[in-house]
From TrEMBL:
Record's subcellular location: Membrane
Record's bilayer topology term: Multi-pass membrane protein
Entry GO terms, CC: plasma membrane
Organism field: Aphanocapsa feldmannii 277cI
Keyword Transmembrane helix belongs to the record: yes
Name of protein: Energy-coupling factor transporter transmembrane protein EcfT
Length: 317
């Protein structure tokens, strides 16, 4: 089974179906940054609304479901797993033992109540309060699930889903050349301060081109281990861990070899690949800028005609 075709994670899938493919890359880059930045200090309602908006945008994007369905299901399962693990983590704020003074010292010392260790509020141990109904805390063996752990699980799951799926949707619908040009365009004001915007854009282009090679090497390594029918129960923990370390070392060696070959090919061409990539970026930039300029000119003319009271004459076909 070709996993790269079944799960195109972080890879552009060529095609004409879907309105999101024809959207200006700068607009897609802007909303991707909004999805990446706004959940950091947001409330629970805002995080949940971002997840719902991402799901709605994915369904209404016009992309074939075979492209994003399996990846979306896998990401949702991973987010739920992370949320479940975070739910069982101790998230209550308790004072360390060094900060808790014995009662004899309080009797002999000051009576200032502000210096006494404060116990956590009663609401921190409640999962839900709805009028007279209360739920929590929930005891699962030695673990206690309270409001803080539920909040941690909710924030972890929604943050992971929002960050990964927003970036994956951007990479699925935008070619690497357009993303590299968009990054260079966004960093253009910083060129006067000595920031190499074109070099950073070309570096991003090479990184996006190199990502499928890394996934292919990982897939080939997993296939090689699976075809040998390794029985991990018979190997034991020590031998299994050694096998995993050897597989990771082999993966790193193959990835570095691919990178070395790519660098040698780029040096041998004398920058021809870079020039070709820059020409493609300039061509795509000219097309996108022309579309934005035409739209702005049309909107400005419609506004002027509406303000003057004269309708706009359209040419007969």
């Amino acid at each position: 089974m070709d996993w790269l075709r079944q799960l195109p994670l972080g890879q552009y899938v060529d095609g004409e179906k879907g309105w999101i493919r024809h959207l200006d890359p700068r607009i897609k880059f802007a909303w991707a940054l909004a999805f990446l930045i706004t959940p950091i200090l947001a409330t629970a309602q805002w995080r949940l609304s971002l997840v719902a908006l991402l799901l709605l945008l994915t369904v209404a994007s016009g992309l074939p479901p075979r492209i994003w369905y399996r990846t979306l299901m896998l990401l949702m399962a991973l987010s739920l797993l992370v949320a479940a693990l975070s739910l069982l983590l101790p998230a209550s704020r308790t004072l360390p033992l060094a900060a808790q003074r014995p009662a004899a010292e309080w009797r002999d010392g000051t009576n200032d109540q502000s210096l006494r260790p404060q116990s956590p509020p009663a609401g921190a141990w409640e999962l839900l309060r709805w009028g007279p109904l209360q739920a929590g805390p929930l005891n699962i063996g030695p673990l206690v699930v309270n409001r803080a752990s539920v909040k941690l699980a909710f924030n972890s799951g929604t943050l992971l889903f929002t960050l990964v799926h927003s970036a994956n949707l951007l990479l699925l619908s935008t070619p690497a050349e357009e993303l590299a040009w968009t990054l260079g365009w966004a960093l253009t004001p910083l060129v006067r301060f000595g920031l190499p915007a074109e070099e950073l854009g070309f570096t991003l282009l090479l990184s996006l081109r190199f990502l499928p090679l890394v996934q292919e090497e990982f897939q080939n390594l997993v296939r090689s281990v699976a075809t040998r029918a390794v029985n991990f129960r018979q190997l034991g923990w020590k031998a299994s861990f050694a096998l995993l370390l050897a597989s990771g070392e082999r993966l790193l060696a193959n990835v570095l070899l691919r990178a070395d070959q790519g660098a040698d090919a780029l040096i041998a061409r004398g920058g021809a690949a870079a020039d070709a990539g820059q020409s493609q970026l300039v061509e795509r930039a000219g097309t996108a800028s022309a579309g934005l300029a035409d739209g702005a000119a049309l909107a400005a003319r419609l506004g002027l005609n509406t303000a003057s009271g004269h309708p706009m004459d359209l040419p007969n076909p």
